[in-house]
Design goal:
MetI-like fold; 2 strands; 24 helices; 555 residues; 2 domains; single chain; disordered N terminus
């Protein structure tokens, strides 16, 4: 009996220690996610009013107007394409629909800035389209008008083509889950299919559609590569310009604060619309919406409308990039490119592992000790997804640069030794920025898998003497292997594509494929930029293939 009591007492001690450890790690992760936001606010407030007054009189109104225009165009574009395509592949049958319902997801693999490089190559003044037009008509450069690809509208089109799958996936899932009862009732009351869709099916799917559109909006305000290459002045480009070109950190922080405020408003709006909107299905859930068989010109129209986003958002850019890559002098197997690939893989792999470990700590803490503390940690951990990479970069660089400078000054005064920059410009600070930016995605994948582990399994494990950490290691993690692999893959690909934080925070002479593509494109060496862009695209296809498999199975 004494041995049993000692064993139980030891188990309780280990259990309490494990709970405290998980809680401590989760709170530290949440604090790390909150630090960049607090640092941006503090740096902006202490930067004085001269800078912000100058910005208000010069560039700030232009940044705000351009950002709003871009957001509005992308919101309308992603809504129209995403909802229209989702409704067509869900509610109608026509030749090729099974292929298109999967292919419509493929543009998600493209970073918007890579799409911008491809279309600039063929649509700009020296590109094949305008060159052919001048050869055929005999016109000179001033004899005709052609849409300018390097414009706010051009950037909006690039973003729409790669972001509409967010709306498409969520809208399609919502339509598939709807019962046919309400739709058929509207048809029985004399409503046409279009009016029944507009008045019944669309309002029922509104929460999912609004969530997809808001995701597209947050990606739009976070975009840097596309707008910077097209010369569109937004808050994202203003932060980079203030930091590097002007060297004014106060201006960069104040612009970052404006962008942070806009992003957080969007995040709160998404949370509020998701939390308040409640729609209940009428009828039995297995009575799915009927599909109409399209024939003749209607079938051709349906196929064309769904094929255009796939053609413009994936097939045509891939063909262009391959042609550009073949015409370039870039050798993917050269020592220099091997270095870019190694840097990208090392950053992406390290960030993916650390981010998923952070997600496990936060997610398991919420399950282990549900309450205000764990809920607050989870909320702060998700903030990073709503914050653009440039804001996170500024928010981490400012405090750690101050720390490095203060430590160096103290070491010089005390020991006459210079420590230099220990943290600023290091790989680990860049990895920390990636963790803050993409932790929400990893946490979502982990919690999705964790929800399938019944609470009774935790109770059974604890009754057999397992500690919380033992339950996590022996029960949860083996069962959640698919979800963890998905989370690792999502973060890995997102880091491979990430540009603004990498540009600002990367160590000296440490370039990635994304940075190399941006640098070559900025030098108007578009053929060369196609080579690293194709590698980024190939890696980006991995999670999209997984999504396509899920789309193909859900019908």
């Amino acid at each position: 009996m004494a041995d049993i009591e000692v064993s139980e007492h030891g188990t309780r001690n280990h259990g309490a220690f494990g709970t405290r450890l998980v809680g401590t790690v989760a709170c530290l992760v949440a604090a790390a996610c909150l630090l960049p936001m607090l640092a941006v606010v503090l740096a902006a407030v202490t930067g004085g009013t001269d800078t912000i007054s100058h910005l208000l009189q010069t560039v700030l109104p232009g940044y705000a107007l351009t950002t709003v225009i871009l957001v509005v165009l992308v919101a309308f574009g992603t809504f129209a394409i995403g909802v229209g395509a989702a409704w067509l592949v869900t509610m109608t049958r026509f030749p090729g629909v099974r292929f298109l319902e999967i292919a419509l997801v493929l543009p998600l693999a493209f970073p918007a800035y890579v799409l911008a490089y491809a279309y600039t190559f063929i649509l700009d003044h020296p590109g094949i389209v305008q060159s052919t037009l001048r050869d055929v008509t005999g016109w000179g450069p001033r004899d005709y008008w052609f849409p300018e690809i390097r414009s706010t509208e051009g950037a909006a089109v690039m973003l729409i083509l790669v972001l509409y799958p967010y709306v498409y996936l969520l809208a399609r899932a919502a339509f598939l889950q709807q019962s046919a009862t309400a739709f058929l009732a509207a048809r029985a009351l004399g409503k046409s299919p279009w009016l029944a869709f507009w008045h019944v099916s669309l309002p029922m799917a509104r929460p999912a559609i609004a969530g997809g559109v808001l995701l597209a909006i947050m990606e739009t305000i976070a975009d840097f590569g596309t707008v910077a290459y097209f010369g569109v002045q937004t808050f994202a480009t203003g932060i980079y310009t203030s930091w590097f070109s002007i060297g004014d950190r106060a201006a960069a922080a104040q612009l970052a604060l404006c962008l942070l405020g806009f992003a957080l408003v969007m995040a709160v709006a998404e949370r509020m619309q998701r939390g308040k909107a409640k729609y209940y299905q009428a009828g039995k859930s297995h009575a799915s919406l009927p599909s109409a068989q399209l024939k003749g010109w209607q079938a051709v129209a349906g196929f064309t409308l769904c094929a255009i986003p796939v053609l413009l958002g994936f097939l045509l850019p891939v063909i262009i990039l391959i042609q550009m890559g073949l015409e370039s002098e870039q050798n993917l197997l050269s020592r220099r490119y091997i270095g870019f690939i190694q840097n990208s893989l090392a950053l992406a792999g390290t960030a993916a592992v650390i981010t998923v470990c952070a997600a496990i700590s936060v997610g398991f803490f919420q399950r282990l000790r549900p309450g205000r503390l764990s809920a607050g940690a989870g909320y702060m951990a998700r903030l990073g997804y709503a914050v653009p990479g440039g804001v996170i970069a500024v928010g981490l660089m400012v405090p750690f640069a101050s720390f490095d400078n203060a430590l160096d000054a103290w070491m010089r005064a005390t020991f006459d030794v210079s420590t230099g920059l220990l943290v600023t410009g290091s790989i680990w600070l860049l990895v920390a920025a990636y963790m803050v930016r993409f932790l929400a995605a990893a946490l979502g994948a982990y919690e999705g898998g964790q929800s399938t582990v019944h609470a009774n399994m935790d109770a059974a494990s604890r009754s057999l003497g397992e500690t919380p950490l033992g339950t996590l290691r022996r029960v949860h993690l083996p069962m959640l292997t698919p979800s963890l692999l998905t989370a690792l893959l999502i973060v890995f690909v997102d880091v491979m594509k990430e540009l603004p934080a990498t540009l600002i925070m990367r160590p000296f002479n440490f370039d990635t494929l994304a940075v190399q593509a941006y640098r070559l494109a900025s030098d108007e060496r578009l053929e060369g930029a196609a080579v690293p862009s194709l590698v980024i695209l190939a890696v980006g296809l991995l999670p999209v293939i997984l999504i396509c498999r899920q789309v193909g199975q859900r019908r």
